[in-house]
Amino acid sequence: MNALTKIIASIRYPESAFGKTLQRIVPILLLVFILILGFAAFAAYRIITPDRLEETIDPSSFLLRNYLTLSFTTRDNKLLEGWFIPSVRGAPLVFLCHGYKSNRAELLTLASTFQENGYNLFLFDFRGHGTSPVRFSSLGVREAQDLLSAITMFTGRPGIDPERVGVWGVSLGAYVALSAAVESGKIKTIVVDSPFQSPGRFVEMETPLILGLDTFVFNKLARAAFFLVNLPQVQHTEDWFKSLTQLQGRDKLFITNEETPALETQTLQVFNRCPQPKELLRLKHSKTSILYDLERKNYENTVVEFFKKHLPVRDRRS
After folding, report:
1. Among candidates 233, 107, 244, which has minimal Cα distance to 175?
2. pTM of the entire predicted model
């Protein structure tokens, strides 16, 4: 009889004091283990099914009445839709990517500023957000592929410069923008506000907010649950970092803010791993929170000016 068999036998048919103690302790330990797994799974579930903000406005609320609601099919055959906002014929197309627990409607003031300056735009809700028919968010794993599908679809429209695409994104949208840019050479200019280092790291950052306590065990188990849900598409952080070298030569602006130090730390790590050319702008507040009046206008003008400098409405080569 091996050691494991002896332990099991001593639990089932205890004769010694040790065996009787094990018989009492093991069910308690098993219950604690199940509870820990349950809490971690609950945290992961809440993170990938964030509360959805209702869209109460659309582009017409900002006098963008010539917008179109257009659909596109993702690589896994999901039908998504977004707002196409045209401007100057032959101008670049800029994709605006909303953040975690946000939606496309929250980007309409920024979209209005872009449109006033001649840029064509496309905005859509990510999985698990806004009006998306997909229930679960994958925190950028599949959303980056969705963005690439949208780029393929809408750069073929008349009046769009198909080889000059820009992306702007915040938090989740920033990670999506960078991931898509790695795979698409059409994306020439990138502005990202507070990208996280990886979906897994983001899960670890959000878990304490869900459970109300910050522990290594819960954070790692929630991350493992997220990993299992998204197999086989989850990419290791170091592999993603290595892929960022493909952004060499493309203009990049990274924005961080003082309000989210944990996210800022991750953003700086991503910034440091990205090749040149790149710029870093640190603000007191950014699009990770609600901006008001002058602060909002200054932010939007800064972003649009970066695009005007590096991705002008009229191609300088023509």
Report:
1. 244
2. 0.91
| Beta strands 68-73 and 79-85, pairing class | antiparallel
Helix orientation angle between 293-310 and 108-116, rounded to the nearest 10 degrees: 50
Structure tokens at 304: 């649009």
Q: Are 183 and 214 in contact (CB under 8 A)?
A: no
Please, which residues have CB within 8 angstroms of residue 26's CB and are 6 or more apart in sequence?
11
The pLDDT assigned to 20 comes to: 60
Is 205 in contact with 170 (CB distance < 8 Å)? no
Amino acid at 78: K
Alpha carbon distances (Å) from 205 to 2, 52, 208, 213, 309: 43, 20, 7, 11, 35
The per-residue pLDDT for range 11-36, each reduced to its tens digit, is 566 666 656 665 677 778 788 889 99
* 3-class SS of residue 159: coil
Closest Cα partner for 179 from 20, 187, 66, 266?
Answer: 187
The answer to whether residue 291 scores a pLDDT higher than 90 is: no
As a whole-number percent, the residues of the chain with pLDDT over 70 amount to: 90
C-alpha 105/C-alpha 225 separation (Å) is: 31
d(CA 308, CA 318): 16
CA–CA distances in Å: residue 28 to residues 15, 21, 38, 107: 20, 11, 15, 50
Residue 73 token pair: 């099919």
Q: Which domains does the chain have, with CATH numbers?
A: 1-48+199-234 (no CATH), 59-197+235-310 (3.40.50.1820)
Find how far residue 210's CA is from the centre of its chain.
18
DSSP 232: T
Q: Where are the alpha helices (DSSP H) in the chain?
A: 3-12, 17-48, 108-116, 143-154, 172-183, 199-211, 216-229, 237-243, 261-273, 293-310
Three-state secondary-structure class, residue 124: strand
CA dist 297 and 113 (Å) reads 9
